[in-house]
Request: fold
Amino acid sequence: MKQPTVRHFDDIVTRLKASLNPVGEFSEVDTLLAGNREYPLIKIVLGQGNPRRILISGGIHGDEPAGVESICAFLENKLYKSFLNDWEFTLLPCINPSGYEAGTRNNRDNIDLNRKFKEDQVPREVTFVKQVLDQPYELDLELHEDGDSPGYYLYQKDQTPPLSSLGRAILDRVEPIHPLNLAEEIEEIPADRGLLSRLSEPDEMEWWPMALYAYTRGCNHVFTLETSTALPMAIRTEAHLRAIQTALEHVGEEA
Ligand SMILES: [Zn+2]
Reply:
C-alpha cells in the first residue's frame, strides 16, 4: 500500500528563508493557532516599490502541494531575476498551513478557505489574504491542483473584455510538458481546450473564491491554475512555473 506523504510546514519555511537571502523580504504577517501548533502566515515581497505588481499564491487547499512547491522552486531557481526591474512580487507560498501539513483540502477547522471571500466574519487565513489584496495587483496567479482532472486547465477573468490572449498563451506553453484537460465542460463550466472563461459575475454568486475577491479589488488579470495530481510532482511544478513565466512575459509586453 502506498504510504501517505508526510509534509512538514517547517521544511517549507526553511527552504523559503534560505532561498531569499539577500533579495527579498520575508514577513510572518500573522500567526495561526491550529490544535497545539502555531503556524506563521507568510508573505514574501521581492522588488518592493517597482511599478508593476503581481500576486502569486499557493496552498489555499492543503491537499494541493504543487502550488507550494512551485513557489519554493520559483525562488530557489531565481526565476524572478529577469523581471525584477519592473515587477514587485508578492508571494503567499502556503495560505493554509494546517491543511498542508494534514494533507487536507480544508483547514484544521474543516473550512474550505476558498469559499469564504464574500463574508466579513472569516477565518484568520482569509483575513490575511484580504489584507494583502488591499492594494490591487495587475496579475493574480492562484496555484491549485485537481485530483479528478486528467490534465491542466485554468480559470481566467480579466477586468475588461475582450478576454486577453494570456490564458491561451499559458496553456500553449504548458501543453508540451503537461497534458491539458480537453473536456468540453470542466466543473460544470464550458471549457475550450483547458480554458474556462465564462465565469460568473461577483453579484451572481452566493460565495466567492479568492479569485473573485481579487477581481472585485481591481486585479486586471486573475487566474486560477490547475494541475492534475495524477502526474508526478516535478511535471506539475514545471507546468505552474511555465504558467508564471508566460504571464510575466505576456503582460510585460502590454503597454
Ligand atoms: Zn484548489
Notes: Residues 106 and 222 are 22 Å apart (CA to CA).
